[in-house]
Amino acid sequence: xxxxxxxxxxxNDMSIPEIKQSEYFDDRMLIGRTVKSLNQLDFAIxxxxxxxxxxxxxxxxxxQDASLSRWGLIQNIMNQSRKPAYLIxxxxxxxxxxxxxxxxxxxxxxxxxxxVLRSSSPVQAFVDLNNFVIEYRGKINKKP
Length: 144
Known about the structure:
This protein has 144 residues and is an alpha/beta fold. The protein has helices at residues 16-21, 38-46, 71-80, 93-102, 114-117, 122-142; strands spanning 6-9, 30-35, 51-54, 85-87. It has 6 helices and 4 strands; from the N terminus they run βαβαβαβααα.
């Protein structure tokens, strides 16, 4: 894994302790973990995952077999995580806005794929999503 900065693992992949024991792993590598419950979040934190993916928030064209997570639980996990946490799963500008109208995320981070890659203008899609997150964070930080 000479040219690899790390790995992202789901619940059905190798566990974090197994990855860390691998002959190919060293302490400079990053491990991301998808979580769908507070117990999974606790496990990921105790095993030193570097970042957390939370969802799927929506159906995804990229990972069609991903099960959707309840939105209230997603909010709870995102706001309780002591590690950087990213909303994942089928996100785009319009559905992200729908989610955030009802659910408050203290430090919004998103991980997207198809919203950018399947866009007719990937650069503009990236810029629009980035601006949306910046604007959302600005609104959240201004609230008392």
